[in-house]
């Protein structure tokens, strides 16, 4: 959870109650990006830089319509990365991918990336 005032991160452990307030009194919210949230430009720059030199891009559960993330598969592909889409439904960018798996992350990932034994 992230404090809406201070930006501090509060980890939750299994069994913890779901707190709605920070110790400073401000509301806590999940530390994720919601529709309408501003993206941190530094995070966007870092993501763009990493994706522009990746070997493999796996896009999981995205509608591929929200920018700048919607441009990442094309960026990765232009740089020669192998691109995989995992999504229950086709997106407007499905044609960009070398491999497409129709299903949820919970269905596809265990089959695609089986657990390593002995770890
Ligand atoms: Zn706070």
Task: Describe what you observe in this structure.
The chain is of the alpha/beta class and 119 residues long. The protein folds into 2 domains: 1-32, no CATH class; 41-112, TPP-binding domain (Rossmann fold, 3-Layer(aba) Sandwich). It is built from 3 helices and 5 strands. The protein has helices at 41-51, 72-78, 105-112; strands at 2-3, 28-29, 56-60, 82-87, 99-102. A 3-stranded parallel sheet has the order 3-4-5. Strand 3, helix 2 (72-78) and strand 4 (82-87) form a beta-alpha-beta unit. The protein is globular. The two termini are 29 Å apart. The site of zinc ion (ZN) has 7 residues, from loops.
Q: What CATH first level of the largest domain would be assigned?
A: Alpha Beta
Please state the average pLDDT score: 90
- Compute the gyration radius: what is it? 18 Å
Helix content: 10-25%
**Shape label:** globular
Question: Major beta sheet, specifics?
Answer: 3 strands, parallel
- How are the strands of the largest sheet arranged? 3-4-5
Q: What is the CATH topology of the largest domain?
A: Rossmann fold
Catalogue the ligands: zinc ion
How many domains make up the coordinates? Answer: 2
CATH architecture of the largest domain: 3-Layer(aba) Sandwich
Structural class: alpha/beta
Q: CATH H level of the largest domain: which superfamily?
A: TPP-binding domain
